[in-house]
Amino acid sequence: MAGLRGTPKQGLFGATLGFFIGFAAVALFGPTAARFQKVMDLSPMLLAFLVAMPALSGSLLRIPFSAWVDTTGGRKPFLVLLCLSLLGMSGIYAVVLFLPEHAGAGLYPLLLLLALLCGCGIATFTVGASQVSYWFPQAAQGVALAIFAGVGNLAPGIFSLLIPVALRFWSLAGTYLAWLVLLAVGVALYAVYGQNAWYFQLAAAGASPEDAKRRARGCGQELFPSGTVKESLRDSARIWHTWALVWIYVTTFGGFVALTAWLPTYWTQYFGVTPLVAGFLTALFSIVTSVVRMVGGILSDRLDEGGKNTAILALLILLAGSLVMTTSHEFELSVPGEILMAFGMGICNAAVFKLVPQVAPKAVGGAAGWVGGVGAFSGFAIPPMLGFAVSDLGKPGYSIGFVVFLFLSLFSLSMAWILKYTRELPYVLPAHAVTEPGPALAGKEAPHA
Q1: Which of 95, 160, 323, 412 could form a disulfide with 283 if both were Cys (CB 3.0 to 4.6 A apart)?
Q2: What is the pLDDT averaged over residues 199-221?
Q3: How many Cβ atoms sit within 10 Å of the Cβ of residue 102?
Q4: For the chain, how big is the Rg over CA atoms in Å?
Q5: What residue numbers bound the domain in which 56 lies?
Q6: What sign does the CA torsion over 263, 350, 355, 14 have?
Q7: How many Å separate Cα 331 from the centre of its chain?
Q8: pLDDT for the residue 430
Q9: What is the CATH number of the domain that holds 169?
């Protein structure tokens, strides 16, 4: 149609590229944490808070920025988040460039603030998932969202592997400069390729909502915003099943974010390996988790219709891995323990979002917002718990701290078990819900992943 830009494939490419670049921030402070700890004389607890800061902003901003997509499309929220991340990276580069050899902890509050800004890129997950959902018809959304989430989630692993190599050859300042340039290029590429779905383009051009829907539907778009995000969040929050999924996602995705930031410290401080080896092992964890997430989507379709059996199986694997990591004092045992945890988290993450439309079929966007936002928040909360174990118990605390994942896995298993064997209550369509013919009946707004 004349005047409209982009195609679904281009929309997927732009969103995936933007999320990949933005999500890389989660790997920022892990491989370089030892340098900051040495120069600033940070305690394990202060270090844990520093590496967790990007996960804090990256989780809390997911809900409001995801809501913004339903009013303007994904392009503007995406660019705002990426630019905030770019601002944070610029500040960190300036700090590192002029960092004295013995700076003390005086710069610590500033680093926390800059880390929060860098984490804004992590919040692009729900923005990009919503953007992709609007571009694709429902029959093709599963594959599109699997590509988006799977490829984007590879970023922390890849950069966890590259940063130690860069530190070895370019120094700390040179590494941050390279990261800053990469982020700037990524923002520019998203500005070129990241396009809103046709409905939002037509609405921005002045078309009425009904005319924009009619013309966009003629181009192949099936999902349109209806109702308000506030109503969707409220309705989904009233369903207890939503909070069961939130808790499971706290364990699996929040755990993934937390360990991506914490593992470099764990490997270097507990086993004394080089930063290069620690970066490789962290990358292994992150990449395995991301790849098996795509496999988990297939299992959720084939192993059972709803994904509940897949979630239970994945949590049992995670429980086994957590037990190994909690009791392991040997490098050769901790490596397979880490891999077991990666398999459990990755498969369960896919199963959770298979379940979201089933527990809140009339408020998918709201339920996904709660699950994605609150669940990811634990990526900030868990590292300080692991740091506390080290501060309280010394070196043995690096392994004993993984008892946190034992308890999280057990409680999440109970939630998955209840979901499986509790009879589902029928969802009553709220009086304010807007219905319209055709595929848009799948929900009040496009599903977020």
Answers
A1: 160
A2: 88
A3: 9
A4: 22
A5: 8-423+438-442
A6: positive
A7: 28
A8: 41
A9: 1.20.1250.20
